[in-house]
Amino acid sequence: MQRIKPPSISQTLKLNNQSTMAEDHRNSKEIRDEPVTVVDRLFLHPRLHQVINCAMVCDGEIPLHSIKSEIQNSLLMLHPKFRSLMVRDSGGREYWRRTEIDVDRHLIFIHRRLSDDSDEDAVNDYLADLSHSSPLSADKPLWEIHLLVAHKTVVFRVHHALGDGVYLMAMVLSNCRRIDDPSQTPTAIHSVKTSSFMPRRWSVVTLLKTVWFTVLYVLETTSTLLWRRDKRTAVSGGAGVELRPRKLATARFRLDDMKAVKRAVPNSTINDVLFGITSSGLSRYLDTRSSTNGLKEGDRITGAVPVNLRQHDSSGLKNLHPNTPQGNRFGMILLPIYYHKRSLDPLDSVKKAKAIIDRKKLSLEAFFTYVLCFLVAYFFGTKPFSIFNYRIICNTMFTISNVVGPNDKMTLWGNTVKHIRVTTSALPHAIIMHMVSYAGYADMQILVAKDIIPDPKILAKYFEEALLEMKEAVAAAAK
Predict the structure, then answer these.
(1) Hey, which residues does 84 pair with through a beta bridge?
(2) CATH code for the domain defined by 34-178
(3) One fold for both 34-178 and 194-405+428-478?
(4) Residue burial 381-404, b: 16+ Cβ < 10 Å; e: rest
(5) Over 70: is that where the pLDDT of 147 sits?
(6) What band does 311 get if pLDDT is binned at 50, 70 and 90?
């Protein structure tokens, strides 16, 4: 699919500044330009330019006649960043500048079928193309809504500079309604607090462990930044991989199956199960390419994992009030999994993942990466800031995230939503995985560099099989 790239942010910043200067001068007494925060500026840098693509697949036809009025009357229009251009002043500093919204410029209608493949494959191919070759134009606020009419799919595209996954999930949900009460917006399954990655009870032993693991993982992050990297395998990325064409596949999990496995491993979480699935699935996939990976039992495969650092529940974002804290508030941890042959006990990978994550929860690694990025960008600018993040990604193997969605079915503009699936712009990783839970299922989008991993559907199948084997092991143990 051929697409024409719109002007990049760097090409249009100057134009935006000139075209809005007269109007904003008249309004300057009422609304001042808001500086772009140092962390948000990371996602505007050409090295790590990031757009979040959220696809919502509906049961029925999209109500095209009412889309414009729905958007104009939505809570989305109350938030400053969704009503602002990103401009740069004479000193090179980026600012959000309030502007009038022309909703028609943000709506992209595609009526034809994208291909003769299934709806899922056609939409995934479209999202893969967006992740690689379609940045958002900066001559308007940095969001779009693509309506794939023939495939009954709505794609929300939002620049990562506007907010992190938790905040932007709330933005999407503000356009939806609960089926049982259309006057209410849906809420997440569980509230996700910063404390989920911090000790709940403090003691002298816990404090000593926190200091020890923080020092240990800070040194690990520093070494990864400077020189350490995973062994090269058949799924390794690296500098320049973000420029390569992409393919996208979906792995689907039943939440009840994940919860059954979680209950079988004492004190474990859904994230423990997810990383156990990832460990088993990746190991099995690498086995199929054993002639090229050169891995040995126990070799490390490191992932970069974003961790929410918001001080409140995600449910507090559900109505997107204008005073809701915005922007990006997350740190990053390095999460290793270990290549292994198929185990007699499929739950072993979950137990090992839990042990690693429990130690990570006792550290301040996520806070360290957030504060370090902030300080580097504040004192030295976005260039070294972007180099720091780019090198971390180049020296690791994959990106993975998990965002909690609604438990109950909901509607989007009066149409029942079947699936919610999220992916982002390409990174130097050859594998990028984003999971979102919704209505009893969790869909993981697996975005790959297709010249490195030409068969992502096989990888998705191995992930799904890993969970089913764990479920069967739980059932067998219960007999």
Answers:
(1) 98
(2) 3.30.559.10
(3) yes
(4) ebeebbbbbbbbbbbbbbbbbbbb
(5) yes
(6) low
Q: Give the mean model confidence (pLDDT) for residues 357-380.
A: 86
Residue in the structure block whose two tokens are 């999407």 = 172
- Indicate the pTM of the whole model: 0.88
CATH number of 194-405+428-478: 3.30.559.30
Mean pLDDT, the chain, integer: 84
Alpha carbon distance 448, 428 (integer Å): 10
Per-domain boundaries in the chain:
34-178, 194-405+428-478
